[in-house]
Specification:
- By secondary structure, this protein is mainly alpha-helical.
- It is built from six helices and two strands.
- About 6% of the residues have low confidence.
């Protein structure tokens, strides 16, 4: 036969108090965590929240999620154009403008990538994946285009 252990009045009060604490703490634990934001709204207006550098690294971190690792693009939930052997990349101005402003479903990266990062990833795409465009863009080229687009947008 099982005999219940004797609980003193003091033990009973302590156990009730602990139970009450656990009950009041449970809703705090069950609450949803704050929504994740990769950067604050203040930093979103400044270029460079992506910390990556180098064209290949930037492509893997930023571009290949949509354009695929082999740059052949994809169709499915959306349509992502191929960058491989793409004649639109003949002039560096086209991919620079597209990366800065986005368009046709591509997000705008002007506020997320620096001029140097944009130049690096554009040069990487234009010299890989079956693209053989030898002329290289520079951060100064991107800066000029960024400035021209800003002043053109103010008119």
């Amino acid at each position: 036969m099982y005999i219940f252990p004797l609980i003193t009045k003091c033990d009973f009060i302590v156990r009730c108090a602990l139970f009450a604490i656990v009950l009041t703490a449970a809703p705090a634990v069950a609450e949803e965590p704050p929504q994740f934001t990769p950067f604050s709204p203040a930093s979103a207006s400044k270029p460079g929240p992506f910390i990556h550098s180098g064209g290949a690294t930037l492509y893997r971190a930023v571009c290949q999620g949509c354009h695929m690792p082999d740059a052949r693009g994809a169709k499915g939930a959306g349509e992502y154009p191929a960058l491989a052997a793409n004649p639109k990349l003949t002039s560096a101005a086209f991919p620079i403008a597209r990366v800065l402003n986005g368009g046709l479903g591509m997000p705008r990266f002007a506020d997320m990538l620096s001029d140097a990062q944009i130049s690096e990833v554009v040069n990487y795409v234009r010299t890989n994946f079956g693209n053989h465009y030898a002329d290289r863009s520079t951060a100064d080229d991107v800066e000029r285009m960024r400035t021209a687009m800003k002043s053109g947008g103010d008119k």
